[in-house]
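From the shared-data thread, chain only:
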Amino acid sequence: MKTELLCWFAAHRRSLPWRDDPTPYAVLVGEIMAQQTRLAQLLPFYERFMVRFPTIVALADAPLDDVLAIWAGMGYYARARNLHRTAQIICNPPNTLANDTHHKPQPPTPATHTNDNSHTLPDIPHTANGIHWPTTKAEWLALPGIGPYTAGAVLSIAFAQREAAVDGNILRVAARLQNDPTDIATPAAHKNATAYILHHMPHTPDTIRLFNQALMELGSLVCTPTTPRCTDCPLVGYCQAHQHDRVHLLPIKAAKKPSPRIPMTVLLIFAPDGRVLMTRRTAGLLRNMWVFHLVQGETLDAPAVREYLQSQGYSLHKIEEITPLGTFTHTFTHRVWEMTGFAVRVNENLALTDHHFRTPDEITAGGLPSAMRYFMM
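Structure, as tokens:
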């Protein structure tokens, strides 16, 4: 199986910068970006990010605002915050993985791997340019925002360790190869896929690095969710679902509950000098990002906006104009914001609590979340 898969991968693999030159830092950044963003969309972001933060030290030393500004437009900003914090932890030797208070709590884990150790694992150095990288999956999982997929991807691709990196593509491929009816959203399906991959994973460093990548690529290009191209699949002879004519039925995935829809009124309050009133979110979605003034849970019309502004301290004669900006729906992972926007021009520089007036250049330089960009245009 592994021979057919790797031969196919050699002929069909796509060029990705963090996999073509799999340094630990490049793989870490690339795989975190790839979790929630399509490859075609993320590549320009990846290139800009690596120019601005070419090493993990550069990332660790940068202010969080700079990281969020480069990330702006890609969404899922917790990834950027966690990546920044992870870089700081890895680059700070006294702040070890065992005693850092920001880490996710982890149960005690033996230092030895639980996968097949019948072959000697390659001795890939985990110290480079003065940076000591985590050496075990447990250490990686202790870092902010690092889950089993990212830990497995970095360890297998960058360090040639026999660890599974189970993403959605691999879950689907493994379910079909095994004819596994387990709901792929469950831990049991992840466990089944992990065991299957480790059973078939090769043991030489070069092939270890490629095996997870090849399975991901197979799921992305051939074993797709709705129109799998079984005649082009190098593993069709091993596929239990194909043999039982069940490819179209797998994987099993329970229907998702619809995301809550939250009404939101977005106010672009312009001062006489053209600056716009903004605030930095301190919790929830878009945390640490600069946003316009938000009235959450309400869809206001122009008269209601005027009344609301009065309640915030703007007297009637200070409000010069209220202009509708239309509506826009932005979908987050588990929430949908149904936004209605207004441009409000006032004739005084009254900044509401925890708000600041910012120039258009400052807004652009600081990175404007995509949820807000529609109204700025």
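The chain has two domains: 2-164+201-221, 261-376.
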